[in-house]
Amino acid sequence: MKLSRAQCQTILETHHVKVTEPRLAVLEFMGTQTGPIKAYDIIHGLTVNPPTVYRALTSLTEAGILHRIESLNAYMFCLHPGHDHAHGHDHEIFFTICDQCGQVDEIDHDLKTNLTSVLKARNFKPKRRIFEIHGACENCF
Amino acid sequence: MKLSRAQCQTILETHHVKVTEPRLAVLEFMGTQTGPIKAYDIIHGLTVNPPTVYRALTSLTEAGILHRIESLNAYMFCLHPGHDHAHGHDHEIFFTICDQCGQVDEIDHDLKTNLTSVLKARNFKPKRRIFEIHGACENCF
DNA sequence: AATTTCATAGCAATCTTGTATCAAAATCAT
DNA sequence: ATGATTTTGATACAAGATTGCTATGAAATT
After folding, report:
1. Which of A2, B66, B76, B112 is positioned for an S-S bond with B60, CB 3.0–4.6 A?
2. At what angle do helices B21-32 and B39-46 cross, to 10 degrees?
């Protein structure tokens, strides 16, 4: 999915992220790879220091340009850039992760429909599910 | 929730896990703590080597005695020990994680009911959701 | 134009988390 | 008992992430 510098810049601008060299470099690097990418792939690939990469990844993720896959310690391009990924809606983003080939898919799931049937329709055989919701509990809200 | 050696042994036996010293020690240590526990808390608490603890945690988790919380890199006792946590059923285990006080709750969620309403009923205010499903994709099944 | 402010960047060090390796011991099934 | 398998133990190391501090550069304030 090779991205030019100009394309990277456009991505940043449309997501209202300040355009900086590390962010451009990380975005560009990610465009050369396919599937989930680890922070240290970038650190080694670009020979930059860890904080530089982690800061870029954080801002790109917060902007919704990337997703962080917690169970892989890895990052992916968001495939549903138009959507609001915040909570409180009638849909939810799921990731399916093939443990064999490593492919990660992003599913925009309508909460009213049955997840099992969605997975079946995609011929994805689930083995392990990770459903974790961060927020504020009753006492701390 | 203090667990005696005998109780730890019973837990292992009822889950068909071989009873070994490291597993007993880790279980017992976890019984002295409350909430999610990190591997290095155990490593430091028991002054044992990392591989010993990670191996014990892996077997305890695989047996369904513990859960691993991916977004915290931490482990918790399973609060629904009677249930089948495998997939393909009409319920799903969710974790709610309070970012303020650190409390983690395990929700056994009936997939037919609306998750948002369940959270609302518990007065949990969600901020960030992590839904990741590992398995085998169409091509690799 | 000069100054303050604030987010970002660079660098080094450090901390946290998790694995690889390989040999010794324990366990189990003939 | 003997051989195969599993589990352990110890050392080392790799991978993942953060902290502290200084410096820079753009934007806001005077």
Report:
1. B66
2. 110
Q: Do B126 and A105 touch (CB under 8 A)?
A: no
Interchain CB distance below 8 Å, B130 and A131: yes
Q: pLDDT tens-digit profile of A46-84?
A: 999 999 999 999 999 999 999 999 999 999 999 876 655
Percentage above 70 pLDDT, chain A? 94
Whole-Å CA distances, A18 to A14, A72, B83: 10, 28, 48
| Sequence-ordered list of residues with C-beta below 8 angstroms from that of A94, at least 6 positions apart, any chain | A106, A107, A109, A115, B131, B132, B133
- Nearest nt to the B72 alpha carbon by C1': C17
pTM above 0.85, yes or no: yes
For strand C, the positions having any atom within 7 A of a protein Cβ are 7-14, 16-21, 27-28
Distance A67 CA to C8 C1' (A): 22
Amino acid at B84: D
CATH code for residues A5-77: 1.10.10.10
